[in-house]
Amino acid sequence: MMMAVTFFAGIGTSPLTAYYFNIVSTLGLISNLIAIPVLGFIVLPAGLISLVCFSYFPMFATFIINVCTGLISVLITLSEFFISIPYSWSRAITLSWIEIAAIYLVFISIFLILKGIRKTPIFLLTLSVLLIIFNVSNSRLKSPLKPNLSITIIDVEQGSSALIQTPEGRRILVDGGGFSDSSSFDTGRFIIAPFLWQKRIRSLDYVILSHPESDHLNGLIFILQNFDVQALIKNTDMRDSRNYTALIKTCQERNIRILNPLSERNPLESGTTKFLFYDSLKNSFSYGFNNNSLVFKVIYNGFSMLFPGDILSLREKNLSSINHPDLHSDILLSPHHGSSTSSTKFFFDKVLPKSVIISCGWHNRYGFPHPKVVKRYNEMGVSIFRTDEDEAIFISSDGKKYNIRTHKGGNIVLYILCLCCNSCFIDTL
Question: Which of 73, 91, 109 is the last residue of a domain?
């Protein structure tokens, strides 16, 4: 009976485990048959006994604690062994509550069938199928008839990360945010991955690393380890750091291709969506990692957005030279999080965006965005969106017009691009 309760409790809680932790474990049902009796009937009672005996028989209490510690260590080793077995567990997208209800209706139906009841299970299974049909139909009704280009600037605090979804169905993650190498908070695990699972994304066509700095790199390691990624796109820069080494090792272990967009011919071109990467004219820059950032523009018919990474004024001047293709873009992701060493006037005059998005952390220690840069943007008459104030920022374009929606407050600002006269009308809804 104890084993049966443990087994069915594991099955019964699996939909909720998938919902809250995005994990489905198969061997967990077996490992719990070992772990729960040991913890519940040996470790926990022994720990309580040691607590009572500690004041009167400290040597005996210490002996019990050491035994319990040994048992827990064995269970941890056993769990690590189960986890290492292929297909012992898998990641899951975030289920909707309708899907969870349908799963539990199936569980109840199976239980009633085992009890010898026939009519009620048929009704419950029919209801479960109807719920699934309703959920699929509702999802399709919410989807636009004509797919748009969708770009999400993810709020990763002081860092940068963006998800690009093309009308052709490709998904590209640009950078993964991250804190210092000594930080225990993983933006990939706790921010980006839950966001992707919530959007029912389990695979990515490409992951782009603009440059190997911690606030762009560290969150990508978890993503590469837990999602099906076709290729990693990066520049030629390498870094002698623990997280960069882990990133490259993960690519090697999971057979993820590493591409250099400046040596590959149109590695990201997808139908009507194009990705234009800008080289650096083979100049060497100070502050190399930042200035060597991959700079690229997403182009979808008449809409475009520029991703400049963390470039500084010297690289901006280099990009603004007449030898480079047109930098003009409707939206600019502010270089280097809005620092005073970027967003120079000659660069801004080349891009001429109508909107600027600044990815930065709330009250960050660098003072980003710099007041001078914000003032310059305001003087240019552009609309400013900031992740530290607006949280996640959602951009959608049909190739002619685009709209920007912020997570905080749910306000929508619609920008209609008039290609014939290069004018822009702003209607706040």
Answer: 91
What are the tens digits of pLDDT across the range 383-406?
999 999 999 999 999 999 999 999
Residue type, 366: Y
- Verify that 104 and 73 share a domain, yes or no: no
List alpha helices for 95-232, DSSP H. 97-114, 119-142, 187, 193-198, 214-217, 220-226
Measured CA to CA in angstroms, residue 304 lies from 151, 313, 326, 365 at distances of 11, 22, 11, 32
pLDDT above 70: percentage of residues in the chain: 90
DSSP assignments along 309-324, one per residue? TT--HHHHHHHTSTTS
Q: What's the first-to-final CA gap in the chain, in angstroms?
A: 61
Residue 385 CB burial class (10 angstroms; 0-12, 13-18, ≥19): buried
CA dist 356 and 335 (Å) reads: 10
Do 62 and 208 sit in the same domain of this protein? Answer: no
- Tell me how many domains the chain contains: 3
Question: How many CA atoms are closer than 13 Å to the CA of 236, on its beta-carbon side?
Answer: 7
Query: Residue type for 402, please?
Result: Y
Angle of helix 97-114 relative to helix 119-142, nearest 10 degrees, comes to 170
Q: H/E element holding 331?
A: strand 331-333
Instruction: Output the six-digit token pair for 318.
Output: 């280099």
- Which residues form the domain of 79? 2-91
Q: Residue 262, Cβ neighbours under 10 Å: how many? A: 13
* Look-up of token digits 């010297």: 314
Is 39 in the same domain as 157?
no
CA 130: distance to chain centroid?
32
Residues with pLDDT less than 50, the chain: 410-429
Residues in the chain: 429
Sign of CA dihedral 358, 362, 368, 373: positive
- 337 & 217 share domain: yes
- Kindly report the pTM of this predicted structure: 0.82
